[in-house]
């Protein structure tokens, strides 16, 4: 790569990632006339928000009685009481407003007969603090993410946001006092290196589903922003909580929305039994995702799976009216036809719990400011650095995210981060002096892949890593298996130092991009196994066979993983909401 | 199964060439993208875009045995061997199967693909009846993969003047949206011999669309709206 010719660009704000969180923030900032650079390794509408299906939660009460306080309770309970209740209250109260805004941006929501936004029931939703099923998920058929992402991109075209499409962010730039000053990026198309100097930087790079072999996540979900933060000295929070979606297509991983069950679908085991009635007598198939995924895994482990190898469960939709499937679930119908050659209107879908969502991430407060412990303060803002969306951990999802809350999270906190950035920009008129040693460090990391000769292959290491994560950090965990996971991932991280790529060209070098992505996902994998081995209780998505119970006395705290010395620390859960009474931990029954 | 793939790295190659790869093991249900990923393990220098792997992100448009499509939703069992894979035609090649889509995106932006309102916005949602909403089906689902526009001879000849099926589908999407308040401006902006009227209903776009959308029909509706407006 051309080491000499580096361009320096200055913007008020740099946003890394052009999914829903990044684009919602960018829109807010562009409309406030801040200069914004959105850097994305793919063209914005290719970001993984596009694949969200079922919808976004907001207590609009268009179908049945509802209010934000019930939504808040469900989210706290869904989080297995690990979510921060101030942030959860903030999110649930803001939900209706952000959904109406989306509608005004042009999102083609499905409609009810009276012309208002269509809502469907989703998992973990209740009326009156744990009562009857609520109907809270606002949907555009089963393509809600696509509808939202495209509308947000379109509004950014109107607002004249500055895009750096197909640029890869290598590392954050940090000065000696710890201020984040932007990032070093390169143009994938040409290999040209650019330093974006920014007064504020927002990381919105999404999740890390590529940790696992079978995942609903796109190939681009390699935890880039999380790893960048780790390298800048910021910890990752609650990384042991990784969501396995109950209904990925067995063996393939394509997502079948929870909306399929919201529209009346249900699960059956090899005996033809609706087994969810045993695990969740009230909510049944619409219990929380962690509960449903564990139930499916248990059925299969105990020999009640479907098929010749009894290794999957069936999702039945064929009792539904064909018009419901065509109207409300056209996307998954197409997916089933393409990948399974079956029409869900006629035949049940083979499914299996599939890696889906990173609950943990970069610790932030509800203004999107990245916070890290400094001496005795558990949450001190990192100057100039923000994060929102799946890469962040506010934490509104705690130990388990409810379906329909991820689109809400990116919108609410993308927006609130932008609003906080706007106030910051008013106070900080000028860019700080760029700290060159930090630029040099980022360059070194990039040029490391120009090394020639023999060595480990990127592809080989990636495959091994996914296998280890599947086997040593899956749905059910024990100390022994997790400790082995730490040893194996550490060994892979060590071997990665010897990895080389053969292709050193500048123009659209996808081998280089994949190598940098592997470095990122490796850092995130370390954070995940170390955090999982540290937590000796079962809570939400973190199921320990050796510690089957939730332990509120010792474990009502967030895990923090630091890459320096690979150390673990903790900080308390924020149990005090903004205005209402706290929801104390209770046994979680659905 | 054999694959003949277009290769070109402008840093190294004077001109494009075809490279042949062989895949010994083809499992049932395998998609072309799965095959390309395995080929890339053998030869990491092969360049192509990809992301979601299930036909919603629109990254992996390419010309497959002469027909544009998305690799991730094209089953190997539907292809005859050797599979000839070329970049989407009509736009400049950056490298291998990766094309420069700037012109395509420019035409997309040119139709002002965003909802416009002139009246103040209500506190709640804008109302839209299910019937009005139904009109957006078949229009809003576009993934911007460019399979349609790069299969269109009118777009090949005039990529800078003719908007192409993808952009016109978007124009149609906002013209059909009962909430949008710029109908006459949108129609006016499409006047002239090129932007819209270079569509000669060849219908390649309809044949190749991986989302089963029908840009030709959308274009027809726009023409009808223009006619009604003139009368």
Tag the structure with descriptive keywords.
heterodimer, A: 590 residues, alpha/beta, eight-stranded mixed β-sheet, four-stranded antiparallel β-sheet, 22 strands, 34% helix, 20% strand, B: 231 residues, alpha+beta, five-stranded mixed β-sheet, two-stranded antiparallel sheet, 8 helices, 7 strands, elongated
What does this structure look like?
Chain A is α/β, with parallel strands linked by helices and 590 residues long. Chain A has helices at 20-31, 68-78, 85-105, 144-158, 224-231, 259-262, 276-279, 289-301, 322-328, 330-340, 405-427, 436-447, 458-472, 479-496, 510-534, 552-555, and strands at 6-16, 36-40, 56-57, 119-120, 137-138, 162-165, 167-174, 180-187, 193-203, 236-237, 242-249, 266-268, 313-316, 349-358, 362-363, 369-374, 377-387, 392-393, 476-477, 543-544, 557-562, 567-572. Chain A has 16 helices and 22 strands. In chain A, the strands form six sheets. In chain A, strands 1, 2, 6, 7, 8, 9, 16 and 17 form an eight-stranded mixed β-sheet that branches. Chain A is globular, with a radius of gyration of 23 Å. In chain B, 30% of the residues lie in helices and 13% in strands. Chain B has helices spanning 32-42, 102-110, 130-134, 153-157, 164-175, 183-189, 204-208, 215-230, and strands spanning 2-7, 17-22, 61-64, 67-70, 83-86, 93-95, 98-99. In chain B, a hairpin with a 2-residue loop joins strand 3 (61-64) and strand 4. The longest helix of chain B is centred in the last third of the chain and has 16 residues, at 215-230. Chain B is elongated and about 60 Å long. The chains are: A alpha/beta (590), B alpha+beta (231). At the A-B interface, helix 3, helix 4, helix 10 and helix 15 of A face helix 3 of B.
């Amino acid at each position: 790569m051309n080491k000499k010719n580096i361009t320096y660009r200055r913007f008020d704000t740099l946003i890394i990632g052009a999914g829903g969180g990044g684009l919602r923030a960018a829109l807010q900032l562009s409309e406030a006339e801040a200069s914004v650079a959105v850097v994305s390794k793919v063209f914005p509408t290719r970001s993984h928000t596009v694949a969200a299906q079922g919808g976004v939660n907001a207590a609009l009460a268009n179908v049945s009685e509802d209010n934000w306080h019930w939504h808040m309770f469900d989210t706290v309970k869904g989080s297995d009481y690990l979510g921060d209740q101030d942030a959860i209250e903030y999110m649930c109260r803001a939900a209706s407003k952000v959904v109406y805004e989306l509608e005004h941006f042009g999102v083609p929501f499905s409609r009810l007969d009276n012309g208002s936004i269509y809502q469907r029931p989703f998992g973990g939703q209740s009326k009156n603090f744990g009562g009857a099923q609520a109907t809270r998920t606002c949907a555009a058929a089963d393509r809600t993410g696509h509808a939202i992402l495209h509308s947000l991109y379109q509004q950014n075209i109107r607002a004249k946001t500055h895009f750096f499409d197909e640029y890869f962010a290598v590392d954050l730039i940090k000065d000696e006092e710890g201020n984040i000053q932007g990032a070093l990026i390169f143009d994938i198309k040409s290999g040209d290196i650019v330093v974006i100097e920014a007064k504020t930087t927002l990381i919105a790079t999404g999740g890390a589903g590529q940790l696992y072999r079978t995942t609903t996540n796109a190939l681009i979900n390699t935890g880039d922003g999380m790893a960048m933060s780790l390298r800048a000295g910021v910890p990752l929070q609650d990384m042991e909580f990784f969501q396995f979606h109950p209904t990925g297509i067995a063996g393939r991983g394509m997502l079948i929305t929870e909306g399929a069950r919201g529209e009346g679908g249900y699960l059956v085991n090899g005996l033809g039994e609706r087994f969810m009635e045993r695990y969740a007598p009230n909510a049944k198939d619409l219990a929380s995702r962690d509960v449903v995924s564990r139930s499916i895994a248990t059925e299969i482990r105990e020999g009640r799976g479907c098929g010749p190898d009894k290794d999957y469960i069936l999702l039945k939709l064929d009792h539904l009216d064909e018009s419901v499937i065509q109207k409300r679930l056209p996307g998954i119908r197409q997916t089933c036809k393409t990948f399974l050659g079956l029409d869900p209107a006629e035949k049940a879908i083979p499914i299996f719990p599939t890696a889906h969502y990173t609950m943990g991430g970069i610790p932030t407060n509800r203004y999107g400011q990245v916070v890290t412990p400094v001496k005795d303060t558990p949450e001190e803002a990192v100057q100039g650095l923000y994060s929102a969306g799946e890469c962040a951990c506010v934490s509104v999802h705690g130990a388990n995210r409810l379906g329909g809350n991820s689109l809400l999270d990116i919108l609410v906190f993308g927006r609130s981060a932008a609003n906080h950035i706007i106030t910051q920009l008013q106070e900080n008129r000028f860019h700080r002096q760029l700290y060159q040693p930090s630029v040099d460090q980022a360059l070194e990391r990039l040029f490391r892949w120009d090394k020639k000769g023999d060595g480990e292959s990127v592809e080989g290491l990636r495959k091994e890593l996914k296998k280890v994560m599947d086997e040593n950090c899956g749905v059910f965990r024990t100390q022994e298996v997790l400790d082995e996971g730490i040893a194996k991932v550490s060994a892979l991280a060590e071997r990665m130092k010897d990895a080389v790529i053969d292709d050193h060209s500048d123009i659209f070098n996808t081998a280089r991009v994949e190598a940098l992505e592997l470095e990122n996902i490796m850092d995130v994998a370390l954070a995940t196994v170390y955090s999982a081995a540290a937590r000796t209780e079962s809570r939400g998505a973190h199921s320990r066979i050796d510690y089957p119970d939730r332990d509120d006395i010792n474990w009502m705290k967030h895990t923090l993983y630091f890459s320096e010395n690979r150390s673990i620390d903790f900080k308390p859960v924020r149990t005090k909401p903004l205005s209402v009474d706290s929801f104390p931990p209770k046994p979680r029954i659905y | 199964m054999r694959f003949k793939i277009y290769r070109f790295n402008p840093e190294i190659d004077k001109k494009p060439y075809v490279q042949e790869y062989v895949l010994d093991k083809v499992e049932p249900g395998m998609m072309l993208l799965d095959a390309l990923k395995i080929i890339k393990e053998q030869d990491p220098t092969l360049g192509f875009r990809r992301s979601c792997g299930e036909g919603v992100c629109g990254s992996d448009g390419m010309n497959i045995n002469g027909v544009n499509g998305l690799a991730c939703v094209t089953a190997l069992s539907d292809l005859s061997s050797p599979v000839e894979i070329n970049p989407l035609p009509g736009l400049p090649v950056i490298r291998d199967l990766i094309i420069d889509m700037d012109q395509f995106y420019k035409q997309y932006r040119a139709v002002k693909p965003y909802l416009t309102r002139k009246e103040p916005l209500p506190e709640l949602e804008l109302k839209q009846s299910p019937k009005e909403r139904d009109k957006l089906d078949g229009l809003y689902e576009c993934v911007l993969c460019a399979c349609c526009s790069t299969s269109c001879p009118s777009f090949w000849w005039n990529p800078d003047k003719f908007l192409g099926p993808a952009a016109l589908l978007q124009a149609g999407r906002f013209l059909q949206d009962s909430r949008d308040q710029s109908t006459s401006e949108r129609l006016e902006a499409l006047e002239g011999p090129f932007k819209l009227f270079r569509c000669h209903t060849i219908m390649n776009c309809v044949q190749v669309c991986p989302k089963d959308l029908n840009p030709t029909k959308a274009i027809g509706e726009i023409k009808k709206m223009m006619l009604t407006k003139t009368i």
